[in-house]
Sequence to fold (975 residues):
Amino acid sequence: MLLFAASRLLRAALTILFVMTFAFVVLRLSGDPALLIMSVDAPPEAIKAFRQAWGLDQPIWDQYVSYIGHAFTGDFGKSMRDGRPAIELVLERVPATLAITLPALALKIGLGIPAGIYAALHRNSVADRVTMAVSVAGFTMPSFVLALLLVLVFAVTLGWLPASGSDSAAHAILPIITLGVGGAAIMARFTRSAMLEVLGQPYIRAASAKGVTWRRVISHHALPNAAIPTVTIVGFMIGSLVAGAVVVESVFAWPGVGRLLVSAVANRDLAVVQALLMVIAASMVMANFAVDMAYGWLDPRVRSAPAGH
Amino acid sequence: MSALVEAIDLRRHYAVHVGRGPFTAKATLRAVDGVSLRVERGRTLGLVGESGCGKSTTGKLVLGLIPSTSGTVRHDGTDMPAINTPAWRALRLRMQMVFQDPLGALDRRLPIGQQITEPLAIHGIATTVERRERARAVMEAVGLQMHQFGRYPHELSGGQRQRVVLARALITEPDFLVCDEPISALDVSIQAQVVNLLLDLQERLGIAYLFISHDLKVVRQVSHEVAVMYLGRIVEQGEAESLFAHPAHPYTRALVSAIPVPLSAQGPRRERLLLQGDPPNPVDVPRGCAFHTRCPFAIASCRVETPALRPKADGRLVACHRVDEPALQVAA
Amino acid sequence: MIDPLVEIKGLTVDFEQDGRRLRVVDGIDLAIAPGEAVGIVGESGSGKSVTWLAALGLLPGHARIGGSVRLEGLQLAGAPAGVLEGVRGKRIAMIFQDPSSCLNPVHRIGWQLIEALKLHRGLDSTRARNEALRLLDQVGIADARRRLNDYPHQLSGGLNQRVMIAMALAAEPDLLIADEPTTALDATIQAQILALLGSIRRDTGMALVLISHDLGVVAENVNRVAVMYAGRLVEEALSQDLFAVPRHPYTQGLLAALPELTGPRRRLAAIPGTVPEPGKVPAGCAFSPRCPLAEQRCGSEPPPSRRVGMLHRAVCHLQIEPGVSAWALPRAAE
Fold:
């Protein structure tokens, strides 16, 4: 087991390194940060001084090695805008993002999974068709459209909730709903197909033939099996807890990680963008790791070897 | 005259990992472990055994579809060329395979007529008109009608699909056909149709068959000679009729006694030889005689020494240390 | 004549598909006496499995069941879920074709066995565990203690089928329905499982319905055989009579199509054509298009059920003499 976990962790670390390298290269290839941060008609000496100060005049390989070297010590560079350590800027935004993504996750799971199970159990009924239609609408609608719709209805027309900002708990409601609804729709769809797949298996009929009540067949025989593919989706959602709210944060002017990403990219604030991408990659990779471990717990076939052939 | 197809000491081993997750160990899966056989022109060699015995792998080795770990395969005197060489491809005209699942062996999206003429197209034989004519001839031979030329596989029944597979295999006029469980997926009444067809084709066209099956009764019906496999080795081989009437190797005796037979068709008291336990894993072949773990007659030497496949007085080949003991001939 | 344990009268099963009704089982009359072993033989499309799935209410929602299925007076056809759940496992148990996929992959063998024991015998955990061990022993599983903690994928097909049989026995049912129990298993394992079923029957006096397409499997292990074709029963007889003197052309054809292991090698009689699909069953006798002796009336009038011997009936217009085979006559040329 330890060997398994160790190899997975190594893979995770390599993935993060790859993301950091990729970000590093792309950011430097996409335009001269010096020119973008200082205006075009800044004097050439100022631009030169800027470049020197930030080490942009060094060969790219040297910059890279220096960056990775510092990264191992926890120094991910400084923001070009206000000089503060990039990692600090990123981490101080994380709580704000989690304040909306965690409740949204609860909504996705709490609404999506029961809806999916119900739809599967009442396949082809009116309830099933309605649930699936709503679900399609939910995940095809772009989040900003949904956000603006909700703002229009609840903030502008009804005046119940604030349209943007982050001053009170009430401000969080609309962002949470926007994030939650799309995810719940996806969750419902996946849960439904996972359940249908399981319900069609021979062991479900065999359990019924044993005399097990239908309720118990669902709760003890079907659900534990349907949980296995569902966990993949949940894992993905957990992975995007940190970075999955870019658009929503922008629409609602919510001061989270997403908004920081948008502004940092616009400003070519290299170190901050790199730090952000590293944190996002790390959270995704950790979530994947947790899912891998969860599989081992949920599916005994993954854990031990089959008999015979 | 030399045999049409000859296999000499064929072995096919796979390197596998046993166990899951972090605790894996390397092991060797001995799918085929020293098999020698001959198929004579126009005759049928039946190959029987249970799952994991290596009969399907043997069929593929004999056709040259997979490379052997060691050993030789000869067709009409010449060694089997390496896979995907032009010589190997040219040999496909003379040897073909018929599979168990006719629906899986056919392309769902192509009409059957096209699939039947495809081998000719691949090898660049004959013009389009001639190909269609040859397809018509072979379809008639297998009992299909020309109006079915444009049909798709899912529009045909299981028996008809298997006929399509046969037609496709026969259109290049091969002299050797490997049939791997060709009728197991079919209903009983259709099985009889296909069996009769295979026998008719052999009589008319002189095709040799390697007939692989777990169904002893069918094998007896179509084979001249039969080889019984267990865990990658042949344990008994001989003329079909006498092998099933008087099996010599304990495993063959168990197989024969396991065949359920309608009470009225049973003659004098049949031997009942029930084996204990499950067949072992081809990754974990027992030392000595591979069968000794389940053999009711096993003695000390069986655990240590692997018996060679030796001829008895009547010509039967048996791999058993105790085969000559008269006491074992009586029902156990 | 003792009262039957299970009596099926006029059972019909229709599947609704795209607004059409496809009849899969078309009027079955069959009775199983207590402790009796009955074989049901048929090819694909015969309805042999659907009949019993319908009896236990295990068919999907779009199946419509008609007719009557009585278990000692209790009506099962169309009964509410509560009644059926009380019968399943407890009075009528069923085992299926592919044992490895009939066991839940995420639960241990012990868990699944104990579930059956707690459900039907109301045992507490300790007693249930001991009883589970005893059952595994009864079905010939060595090292039972270790097996209780194994998962289905860790056991071979033969072992899994023994586990299924153990679960079926948990409640000491009156009837066990075995639907192709050995088709997915190797020949030597098949023999073991069939021998096991036989010995359990002798020990417990349980009735058995053995469903198979393999006539040999059925013949060796039951007292009475019923042959089904395209959703209907065509012949019913004592086992030895059916195989010695079959009286229906279809049964005769099936037997003539079987190769034998001993005796003279003869050309197999192949029944021409194929089994009709549900919904496309011909009028009159379902077998008439393929029957070498078919007459005018066979294609238009449904054939009557005739008594042709002791406990032997054939559903056919014609009176075929015992010993005469429809397939040996000159008209039956291929």
Residues 228-332 of chain C form one domain. The first strand of chain C starts at residue 6 and ends at 17. The mean pLDDT of chain C is 90. Chain C touches chain B through 47 residues (CB under 8 Å).
